[in-house]
Amino acid sequence: MSKDHRVLKNLKMFRTTASYKLREGLDKAFHAELVFDMKIKMFSLNIDECFSAKNEKVLSILVAYFCDKTNKVVLKHYASLSLVTVNAESLFNAVIHLFNKDAIPLSNLVSNLSDSTNYMRGKISGFETRLRKVVPHLLDIDGDICHHVHNVVKKFTSFFSKVVENLLDDIYIDFKYSPDLCTFLKKICQITGVTYNTPKQRVCHRWLSVLDCTLPMLEMMPAFTLIYSSWLSKQDISLYKDESDKILKRLSNEKKWTVLWLLVLKEHSTEIRLRNKILFENTRSRILFSQKQIKKEEEEKESAVLKKKSEDTGRDINDDDDDDDDDAEKEKEDGDKPKLSKKKLRRANRMEIAELKQLVNRPDVVEMHDVNSKDPKLLVYLKAYKNTVPVPRHWCFKRKYLQGKRGFVKPPFELPDFIKQTGIMEMRAAMQEKEDSKTLKTKQRGKVRPKLGKIDIDYQKLHDAFFKYQTKPKMTIHGDLYYEGKEFEIKLKEKKPGDLSDELRTALGMPVGQGKHLIPPPWLIAMQRYGPPPSYPNLKIPGLNAAIPDGASFGYHAGGWGKPPVDEMGKPLYGDVFGTHSEEISAIAENEVFDKTQWGELESESESEEESEEEEEEEDQTGVVTPGDVGLVTPSGLSSVGAGMETPDAIELRKRKEIEDAMETGGDTPALYTVLAEKRAQVGSALMGSAHTYDLVTTKKTEGVEITLDPSELELEPAAMAAKYDDSIKEREALREDLSDMVAEHAAKKKRKKPSDSGKNAKKYKDFKF
């Protein structure tokens, strides 16, 4: 309002003061008065785009209603919305929020006048469609005030110069229909068969005013349509041509001509009159002479063909039968025939869709535009090939890709649930609050010397979030392309074909609860007659290609499973309907022994040795026994080897572990650990002294004695073995004594060197100066 110079000229104050008072004082009073009028009176809503004082694009909401004080229709500004993304949903929510805030009843809303954009007048999800769901009595009136006011001077002023004095002021001035115009309107109503009612107010740039939005006046819409369609310019006549053509089609030819002639005569501008005369003549000639002209043209063509034929026959009788003459005649005949263009030739040679579907193996893949390709069969073969990625479906769309998502508000990115559970969002919110509370000085100081590690999350929480609780996101499979609106489709992955839920059973009138599986579905008899569904070839359906449940029976009684589909020989057509194959399979499964060991599992050493021994034994058994000669056999009772020198059957060369030895011999297993005896000790002057020590003397293990034996000494007597053991112990003790002497000598040498070293170090310390 502060930019309105006409208002500011009448105000004796500075511009800033005027804008402040208008914004803070007068504007509030005007708005309160407007809200009060909207609560008690019927009003019309007008929405259009405009620019604010800061040159920002806003949506201006105007309200038109009849004012008792001024006795005319008043157009007032209700609100302005600055929306980041304008779509039907956001605009509808904003308008409803304003009405609820001011407690304005929606029953007072009569009509909505807006421009013809998708988000305003879309049939499926436009603003007016959404508004009509809440306000079912909303009138369907075309055109709007806000949009047409800006364009009305350019398009209509030249045609309405004698009728309308100032079209821009027509919104505020009560302009009546003239008597001539009323009689003209009455004639058109009589011709079209509509009851005539005198309109209260005339608004040229839309059909009806707010005062005339009543049911009797709405019945006169055909007459208004014909009048206004004749007044429109060439640019806008296409908008209402369909509506006027529909009305004219209902009338007879005589009524059409009279209506068109009335529209031609009753014009206030010479330009429109000339244009409508041409229109009238064209339509009249089309109606009257179209069939006659077609007949004349056909008769002329037939007569020309007959003349040519008669001339050709005369030439054939008079002339000789020469080849040159025949060729010339053929060329003339070919020249007389109309030549087809390339486009018509392509259409003539084009294959039909039904024919293409019959020729290919996969007719379900064929689309309407496949016949336009150079090789349709190859195209369908490539489309039907396994794992073929289809061409994106928007290739043939005229609008640009993802243009339909311009109005949607894109939600911000959300963290997955397993990351939310770590508490990172709460920590970030707390940090943000802390940062917002800081002054500018502290923020600048933080930029110079930034602190790191502000958000410190426990490592175990992060580890569990990513390695224990992480879930796999929804990912597309190979060849699954994105298309516009895919995210809004209903996903039916949890539904499986053949499984009947309780809700579906209730809807079909089937019982729910115990024994529900004994009742067949209602489509079973039709499937038994026509076969299983082709879309699910591997689906097992009881009573069709699978056995019926236990306790059920075939038949057409209540709860019966119909008639099993069999051929003339009594064999099932579609599968094992009697359940005979399942018994054979179960019997085979019982006899089979399955190896349940995991593949690649490591075998223990004992098992591998046993298997290798078994393999060696099997190999020995498979060998051929060579019979020895009788003379070479050693007589029984005699041995060439002395006592104690026999070769043993098997020698254990591998070092066996103590645990395995104990397990094999059946003895006690060795202890896993030993508890050390604890002793109390004084700390003393030690820097890192301990209050207790452990006794390691008792825990010393008695070392074993190793004896090396030849294979020939394995079968010695116990006395010889004991002597061998004593000799080895003596050798070990002698070696230990030699080592102890060497250790004692080394310790004595170290003691002698110690006092001399300390003196040298002390002297160096004294000579050193700081």
Question: What would your notes on this structure say?
Answer:
The protein has helices spanning 5-10, 15-40, 88-102, 118-121, 127-134, 145-156, 179-192, 215-218, 221-231, 237-250, 253-265, 270-318, 323-336, 342-349, 353-359, 376-384, 417-420, 424-437, 440-448, 459-467, 502-508, 524-530, 580-591, 605-622, 658-665, 718-767, and strands at residues 43-51, 57-67, 72-81, 109-114, 677-680, 692-695. It is mainly alpha-helical. Helix 3 packs across helix 5 (127-134), helix 7 (179-192) crosses helix 9 and helix 7 packs antiparallel against helix 11 (253-265). The model is unreliable at 19-24, 143-173, 264-278, 316-322 and 628-641 (pLDDT under 50).
Strand and helix layout:
Layout: H1 5-10, H2 15-40, E1 43-51, E2 57-67, E3 72-81, H3 88-102, E4 109-114, H4 118-121, H5 127-134, H6 145-156, H7 179-192, H8 215-218, H9 221-231, H10 237-250, H11 253-265, H12 270-318, H13 323-336, H14 342-349, H15 353-359, H16 376-384, H17 417-420, H18 424-437, H19 440-448, H20 459-467, H21 502-508, H22 524-530, H23 580-591, H24 605-622, H25 658-665, E5 677-680, E6 692-695, H26 718-767
Parallel strand pairs: 1-4
Antiparallel strand pairs: 1-2, 2-3, 5-6
Q: What can be said about this structure in brief?
A:
This protein has 770 residues and is mainly alpha-helical.
Which residue ranges are poorly predicted, with pLDDT under 50 across at least 5 consecutive positions? Answer: 19-24, 143-173, 264-278, 316-322, 628-641
Helical fraction equals 40-55%
Name the average pLDDT.
72
Radius of gyration: 53 Å
